[in-house]
Amino acid sequence: MMKKLEELMTKTLLPLSEKINRNIFLSSLSESFVRITFIILGISLIAIVGYWPIPSGWGIWLRETGIMTHVDAVLNASTNAMAIYISYSFAAAYSKNSGYNSQNGGMLGLLSFLIVSPQTLTFTTKQGMTEVVQTFSKNQITGQLDVTPINAFPISALGGRSLLVALFISFLAAYIFVKMSKKGFAIKLPDSIPPMVSESLSPAIISVAVVLVAFTLRIIFSYTAEGNMVDWCNFIISKPLSLLTATPIAFIFILTLASFMWFFGIHPNVVNGAISPLLYTIILENIAAYQHGTPLPYGTLAIVLGNTILGGAGCTLGLLIALLFAKSKRYKAIFKIAVIPSIFNINEPLIFGVPVVLNPIFFIPMVVSPPVLGLTTWLLTSLIKVNLNPLVGLMPWTTPIFLTKPLGSGLAGTFILAICLVLNTLIYLPFVKLADKQALEVEQAEEILKSETELSLQS
């Protein structure tokens, strides 16, 4: 049975993978995510230490000493600014794969993204707030908040929720750069001019065209209710999701959608942002009921949620375990790099390192795992009584599932988790074997070529 499945996947998925690799747009998109993997790995240790999941005075000490501010600064400069890196990386990869200067293309992609991004922050002054409080205390609201706008890029507009805009606008910039370069719009300077100078000046006319396009888009979206392209795109995605009710099936659908989008490189935060208010409401209402000794209104939902995102969007904990069976040097190395971050729910090293993004071999397990695990958990909770302590919902997001389950749902919850982990691994395993086989063949071919080259040099 397994052999037939491998043969079927070899016939269907490998040719599709080769087609994607030959497509400039898709191969550049995949490459752009792979090239930023080192950034994620670089901050993983800081994220784990800063949001240490063991309940203790560690977090309090970090805040009291002011160190937590600097931990957040590291995250703001990396994961919360991911759209900046992607806008450059994607445009650079597309330009390079099209045969043109990658740095020029990348800079135009980054420039275009920053142009269409929101660039204003507002804050309320102490005086304005005092006036409102004073008038409110007199049973009348006549005060007015003194809201002062300042020119700045909001961190919230540079991270995962902006990836879709970053990908679109950087591709548009790179596409214009490549097409206009082909048409001869690049300025040609004499050979006597140093290459560094000529290469930096050659796209001057093209940059004007790119800026005009980005400028036009900025103006167009300024007339929307959201006021900018980033917030408009997030509204279009999040509005339908915010209307969903707090039921297990609704959240299974949402988390499956997040995994689907993650496969295409769109960060789950785009989806998670829409359900965060509802999610916090669920946690708080469960805690309130728990404190009063009444049945939890969303107990089953909370248990289902935890098992539908094992290791992060796409349930990549199963992928990590499946990599234990890899034979190729490539996937063995990826396992070693990704194991610690994955345990603490940081799955970007796996998503970008394998890579899973736009890799057709991993599309099926990535999208199938969340609904299978979610529905399995839902079924098992109807058959097995699980006593949930909803306070675990307040633990840091880096808390490993191996801690939250025993602490939050005891032996019953841990048993269900074990079943889900086995299922999760079995779903990923045949696809990992296929990818590993492909990588192993490449490595063996390289070894043979290396040996033949050494023999020819000796003779």
Automatic annotation (TrEMBL):
It comes from the Bacteria. GO terms for biological process: carbohydrate derivative transport; phosphoenolpyruvate-dependent sugar phosphotransferase system. The chain crosses the membrane at residues 32-54, 74-94, 106-124, 163-180, 201-221, 241-263, 270-289, 301-326, 410-431. Its main location: membrane. It is a multi-pass membrane protein. Keywords: Cell membrane, Membrane, Phosphotransferase system, Sugar transport, Transmembrane, Transmembrane helix, Transport. The phosphoenolpyruvate-dependent sugar phosphotransferase system (PTS), a major carbohydrate active -transport system, catalyzes the phosphorylation of incoming sugar substrates concomitant with their translocation across the cell membrane. This is Permease IIC component.
